[in-house]
Design a protein that fits this description.
Radius of gyration of chain A: 25 Å
Shape of chain B: elongated
Number of helices of chain A: 25
Number of strands of chain B: 7
Strand order of the largest sheet of chain A: 2-1-3-5-4
Structural class of chain B: alpha+beta
Number of strands of chain A: 5
Structural class of chain A: mainly alpha
Oligomer: heterodimer
Strand content of chain B: 15-25%
Number of helices of chain B: 5
Order of helices and strands of chain A: HHHHHHHHHHHHHHHHHHHEHEHHHHEHEE
Largest sheet of chain B: 4 strands, antiparallel
Largest sheet of chain A: 5 strands, mixed
Order of helices and strands of chain B: HHHHHEEEEEEE
Low-confidence stretches of chain A: 1-22
Distance between the termini of chain A: 71 Å
């Protein structure tokens, strides 16, 4: 017997199946797999066209994105589908979103966070040991190497490239996440249909398609947290030994990502609190919460010199941004526009707003309905409904850029509650064609809105021509060539001053130590003027000595436009300190001035990027 | 596990371990390793009353947890995380699971089942996904062709060596040096083959700052430049 019980029914197995539907359950997973595969093909073609032509690829990309979801959503809602097909279809939909991103960048990781972690992986592989070499661009990752360790293991055991190994890990993680979620909700509600609707709704979470699909530490920690909850909830017997498996899973999550592990711990604590308040059997929820807290505390103590500072900075800058906006010192985050001034198309803005409104409305109705029969619900169900009620915080957090990051990250957990609440409501509606069509339309709107909101500006979603400081769109043949050249012709671990995107490549593929304030604990505000200001006379030489630099990498294309993500190098650079707002790109002389500073040498040139040897200035 | 199956599993475990340890290429090692990992995890996760999805999620979940925790264990050894230690660890885990589940009997009844219409749908989907992967990889490879690059290959008393390469055949080019130096073969026109670097040595006086330009021989445009300080004569 499971330790979780609830009163919801499996509509597919009871009298609410309408006469218009055949009574024997259908097998449709294969057909859904074909629709999903066609979606993937369309997305792959969109990526291909984006690289080989200059026209818009929206006419292939968006139908492809839709095709990934329509089949699974239909399978989740349909009343007469076999349980195994229903679950398989929704899991396919979840996995397909991860595969779609791999198809857009099939040969290498290209996004900012992905390259950060590829660099952490490189450092581990070069060192052979954990917790030693520090990634200057993300020092905290030294203490949270779960993603890198698992990727290294797959790479070493199978002989596959690190990119293929990392991609395989992401797909495996997505399978674990989807199945853990669906099986947990199924155990709570005793309804496969409710569970699959919840799974289909979770795919609509704005972090699902992009942020939690990338090669980044939360992408492995989140499935492990869900897995721990699943293992705990579906134990056959409530013995102390039965807590070993969920504890190990949570331990692996704690070693992978700080904030996600915190979220996982809060799930267990919330579960226990709810059981205690409602005086229902705890089934060791208290002991599990205690173990979870112990794991988190132990790992945080081990990583305290980096993690506390890192997390504090995130929350502090969020609080400061909000207070600046409220106090009128700073403009609020302009919604639907990037820092380069490009606006999101009108239909996408409309779809996003509509998705939020539909979610809020659906949630309100669901929570009101759930309130009526709250007494019959398990503690886990009540805890999830409370979590769902936090949803309005996510759109509200988009007041500022930094608070949006905190809000978006918490959405991975909050959306479990949202999915659970709305699924519980949808599953109990009469199964008529009209109702089902309405529910299908609702899920589709939420999904499209989630993809738009979570994917950031339109250019970020697909490959295409070079964009200034445009993360994946800043990664091109020039940057890769310079990085590979460094790998071949320069000794490793030289200290280099370089912009945001080339820094990621030069560290990951060029094996260089990229100067950053997080890792080097020096002032980036002044040092960044080496790359962002025109000639500064002897001050440039002083800065080279201050930062103890060996090389300087100048990408002349940065003078062509404002940075798409707001910074050329990193937050705190010249022009972005405090409430400063950069209005113009740096002058071209900023990137060529070292041609005239003797005795520095320009030792490499590929037309866009030049490498200067500045060791002679030290 | 009957004797034949036990032996087959042993062979697979050792084959995967040895191929991993000797650094065999992914094309050869991966099929053995993936089969070994999956079959070991599947055997470990068998339990009465557990349905297919429960086993499936536990197979993938347990492998991820085992890899992460296994990596931390390897970190405690002097050699750390290497191809050999990872392979050895996986062999040990696989053997332990095989011994633990030695009384499990594997059913091969599914081999005699008729393929359902669903199988054809899944096969179609697999073909479409493979096509998508081929298309995506083709596009990505086209996009990463190396640009025209020029760099300082080395410098010694009396000469500076530069190298030029490109991802595609191009040219003709020639070198122009400022300040001017004695004309040598280094200044003859040359063309580039794809991904084959061409080196040119340029005579240099002592302690002089040289700007070496790569010039398109047809248009006369300077397309790349390096700047070098020549070493003093000893």
């Amino acid at each position: 017997m499971s330790v979780l019980v609830d009163s919801a029914r499996d509509v597919s197995q009871d009298e609410s199946v309408t006469v218009e539907e055949p009574s024997t359950p259908k097998s449709i997973a294969g057909q859904v797999a074909v629709t999903v595969a066609i979606g993937l093909l369309l997305i792959a073609y969109a990526g291909y066209r984006a690289r080989t032509t200059t026209g818009s690829v929206d006419m292939f990309y968006w139908p492809g994105v839709l095709m990934l979801y329509l089949g699974p959503a239909w399978a989740a809602l349909a009343p007469n589908v076999r349980r195994s097909d229903r679950i398989a279809a929704v899991v396919l939909g979840g996995v397909a979103t991860t595969v779609s991103r791999i198809l857009l960048y099939p040969t290498h990781f290209a996004y900012h966070d992905e390259l950060l972690h590829m660099n952490s992986l490189r450092l581990i592989q070069e060192n052979g040991h954990l917790f030693e070499a520090m990634n200057s661009m993300l020092p905290v990752s030294k203490y949270y190497p779960g993603l890198e360790v698992a990727t290294d293991g797959i790479h070493r055991i199978t002989g596959l490239s690190t990119h293929v190994a990392g991609s395989a890990l992401l797909v495996a993680g997505r399978i674990v996440l989807m199945l853990s979620l669906i099986r947990s909700v199924e155990w709570i509600t005793k309804s496969a249909r409710t569970a699959c609707i919840a799974g289909a709704l979770y795919i609509c979470s704005q972090q699902f398609t992009f942020f939690n699909s990338q090669f980044s530490y939360q992408s492995v920690a989140l499935p492990l947290c869900f897995y721990a909850v699943y293992l705990f909830g579906t134990r056959n017997r409530a013995t102390n030994w039965s807590l070993l498996a969920p504890s190990l899973a949570l331990g692996a999550a704690a070693m992978s990502h700080h904030l996600t592990a915190l979220g996982g711990v809060m799930v267990f604590v919330g579960w226990w609190l709810m059981a205690k308040i409602r005086k229902t059997p705890q089934q060791q929820a208290g002991l599990m919460a205690l173990i979870a807290l112990g794991i988190l505390a132990a790992w945080t103590a081990f990583a305290h010199d980096q993690v506390l500072r890192y997390v504090k900075e995130i929350f502090q800058s969020s609080a400061e941004s909000i207070s600046h906006v409220v106090g009128g010192d700073q403009e609020s985050n302009e919604l639907f526009a990037d820092n380069g001034g490009e606006k999101t198309p009108l239909w996408q803005r409309g779809a996003s707003v509509l998705a939020v409104l539909v979610t809020v409305a659906g949630l309100a109705v669901s929570l009101l309905r759930a309130r009526k029969d709250r007494k019959s619900k398990s503690s886990a169900a009540i805890a999830l409904l409370f979590v769902a009620a936090l949803y309005p915080l996510i759109p509200a957090s988009h007041l500022t850029v930094t608070s949006a990051e905190v809000g978006d990250r918490s959405s991975s957990f909050i959306y479990v509650g949202v999915a659970f609440a709305i699924a519980g409501w949808l599953a109990l509606l009469p199964v008529t064609r009209i109702v089902r069509s309405g529910a299908f339309a609702m899920l589709t709107i939420m999904y499209v809105g989630g993809v738009i909101l979570g994917g950031g500006p339109p250019w970020l979603k697909v490959p295409g021509p070079y964009l200034v400081a445009g993360d994946n769109r800043g990664v091109d043949a020039n940057g890769m060539a310079a990085a590979y050249w460094m790998h071949t012709y320069m000794t490793p671990d030289n200290r280099i001053m370089v912009d945001r995107v080339n820094g990621l490549l030069d560290a990951t593929y060029g094996r260089q130590h990229v100067f950053r304030h997080l890792g080097d604990k020096l002032d980036m505000g002044t040092t960044s003027t080496l790359l962002l200001n025109g000639p500064q006379g002897d001050y440039d030489k002083e800065l080279v000595r201050y930062a103890d630099l060996d090389y300087l990498v100048a990408d002349r294309r940065l003078a062509a436009g404002l940075p798409r993500f707001g910074v050329y190098i990193e937050a705190g650079e010249a022009g972005t300190r405090g409430t400063e707002v950069r209005r113009d790109p740096p002058p071209l002389e900023a990137f060529t001035k070292f041609d005239y500073i003797e005795p520095t040498e320009r030792i490499y040139d590929n037309g866009a990027i030049a490498v200067y040897d500045v060791r002679s200035l030290k | 596990v009957n004797r034949l199956e036990f032996a087959a599993r042993l062979i697979l475990i050792y084959a995967a371990g040895i191929l991993g340890a000797i650094g065999a290429k992914g094309d050869i090692a991966a099929p053995f390793a993936v089969a070994s990992i999956f079959l070991t995890a599947e055997l470990a996760m068998r339990a009465p009353g557990r349905d297919g999805f429960d086993r499936f999620v536990r197979i993938f979940g347990s492998v991820i947890v085992a890899l992460i925790l296994g990596g931390f264990v390897l970190n405690l050894f002097p050699d750390g995380l290497t191809r050999q230690t990872w392979s050895a660890l996986w062999v040990v885990i696989s053997l332990a699971v095989l011994w633990w589940k030695r009384r499990e009997v594997t059913s091969f009844a599914w081999l005699h089942k008729k393929a359902s219409p669903q199988t054809a749908w899944f096969a179609t989907a697999a073909v479409v996904v493979i096509g998508a992967a081929v298309l995506a990889t083709h596009g990505a490879n086209q996009n990463l062709q190396r640009p025209l690059q020029m760099w300082v290959q080395g410098k010694s008393t009396g000469s500076i060596t530069v190298a030029i390469s490109s991802g595609s055949a191009s040219g003709p080019y020639r070198l122009v040096v400022d300040p001017e130096v004695t004309k040598t073969d280094a200044f003859d026109e040359f063309t580039l083959d794809a991904d084959r670097a061409v080196e040119r040595s340029i005579p240099a006086g002592p302690s002089t700052r040289y700007r070496i330009h790569l010039v398109d021989a047809k248009t006369g445009d300077q397309v790349r430049t390096v700047i070098v300080e020549s070493p003093p004569f000893s």
